[in-house]
Amino acid sequence: MIDLSSFPDPLNVAVIGASGGIGKSFVDTMRGHEQVENLYSFSRSAPDSIAMDICDEGSIKKAASSIDKPLHLVIVATGLLHDDGLMPEKNLRDLTSDNMKKIIEINTIGPALVAKYFTPLLPRVGKSVFAALSARVGSISDNALGGWYSYRASKAALNMLIKTISIEVARKNKDAAIIGLHPGTVDTRLSQPFQSHVTPAKLFSTDQSVGYLLNVINNISHKETGKVFAWDSQEIES
Ligand SMILES: NC(=O)c1ccc[n+]([C@@H]2O[C@H](COP(=O)([O-])OP(=O)(O)OC[C@H]3O[C@@H](n4cnc5c(N)ncnc54)[C@H](OP(=O)(O)O)[C@@H]3O)[C@@H](O)[C@H]2O)c1
């Protein structure tokens, strides 16, 4: 059983992006955990979850209003790197306004709106964590390769939002941690086109990554609020 002993018992958890590779693993892990009393899962497509499109503020507001209990752990596991008409840019020539707007709407604006409606549901006292899935490539200081303009920028902006939200939330919720998480390279739809460059040992299963991330979440406190951590607990600098 994954250790969540730093949290109150019983524990209420929300997972946004329940249909995704990492999101589904969070839901399955939390569903089987003895400490979890209430599990709320949100998705625009999974039939057994509460409807939420993170590009539609009204749907986020409505979904949040269906929760009548304090949330000790909120995981935002949504995100986009590519889809049918969109691949990460190899160079500036590939950059288009429409694709960049789409990536930023999903990776940056969506999680910010989720924070707007879900951080007020964190308990006023006792440990709570709001964690958004970010990515190491959102680190400006770590950018040695270039490329992936929109995705990098969307995650760098997400990291700034996490820091800024953490400052506001700390005024009311002294025990809360607002953090970003880099899950490693994980075997999901999102990483699928890029997996050939990854050695098998560095390509995590979704359950493996979620186990690592829950370990990070259990070990952090309000003292780490505003920061971004990788799966191995290392802080990722901006
Ligand atoms: N996999 C990796 O190697 C890796 C590495 C670094 C960071 N990350 C980050 O980890 C997070 C999860 O990625 P993943 O690998 O699990 O990807 P995934 O399997 O493609 O899942 C993405 C999730 O985002 C949801 N989503 C996209 N747009 C949405 C919208 N408008 N409203 C609601 N949900 C929406 C998808 O819902 P639908 O099913 O409805 O499309 C899906 O549940 C992302 O933020 C990603 O950037 C992943």
What's the arrangement of secondary structure elements?
Layout: E1 11-16, H1 21-31, E2 36-43, E3 50-51, H2 57-65, E4 73-76, H3 97-118, E5 128-133, H4 149-172, E6 176-182, E7 185-186, E8 203-204, H5 206-219, E9 228-230
Parallel strand pairs: 1-2, 1-4, 2-3, 4-5, 5-6, 6-9, 7-8
The structure holds NADP nicotinamide-adenine-dinucleotide phosphate.
Structural class: alpha/beta
User: What is the CATH homology-level superfamily?
Assistant: NAD(P)-binding Rossmann-like Domain
| Strand numbers in spatial order across the main sheet | 3-2-1-4-5-6-9
What fold name stands as the CATH topology?
A: Rossmann fold
Cα distance spanning the termini: 33 Å
Biggest beta-sheet profile: 7 strands, parallel
CATH class label: Alpha Beta
How much of the sequence lies in strands comes to 15-25%
Rg computed from alpha carbons, rounded to a whole number of angstroms: 17 Å
The overall pLDDT, averaged over residues, is 97
Number of structurally distinct domains: 1
Low-confidence runs: none
Assigned CATH architecture = 3-Layer(aba) Sandwich
Bound molecules: NADP nicotinamide-adenine-dinucleotide phosphate
N-to-C order of helices and strands: EHEEHEHEHEEEHE
Q: Helical residue percent?
A: 25-40%
Strand count: 9
Overall spatial form: globular
Supply database-style keywords:
238 residues; alpha/beta; Rossmann fold; seven-stranded parallel β-sheet; two-stranded parallel sheet; 9 strands; 17% strand; binds NADP nicotinamide-adenine-dinucleotide phosphate
